[in-house]
Design a protein that fits this description.
The chain is mainly alpha-helical. The chain is built from 3 helices and no strands.
Length: 93
């Protein structure tokens, strides 16, 4: 248990930051699931416009340090790959 005032304050700050970061990560996951649902339903035009928003969201979160920048880039890349595969499959039909 922390005894000094500064240690107690640090615990409060860490809790606030952890909850904020958790909220942002959760929001990103929700957006990504919505994007994947659009791709799977075949609405590729809406998915393309949603992809731009997702990229921006991942970049913002990475710039704040909630996610590592390479993690954000990897996730964006995988989502883009999913969209591109769906496009290729649709054009092959």
């Amino acid at each position: 248990m922390a005894h000094s005032l500064s240690a107690k304050k640090r615990i409060r700050q860490n809790l606030k930051r952890r909850m904020r970061n958790k909220s942002q990560r959760s929001a990103l996951k929700t957006k990504a699931k919505g994007f994947l649902a659009l791709v799977d339903s075949g609405d590729l035009d809406a998915a393309q416009s949603d992809m731009a928003g997702l990229q921006k969201s991942y970049a913002q979160v990475a710039s704040k340090g909630v996610l590592h920048k390479n993690t954000a880039r990897r996730k964006i890349s995988r989502l883009a790959k999913h969209l591109n595969r769906a496009r290729a499959q649709k054009s092959a039909e």
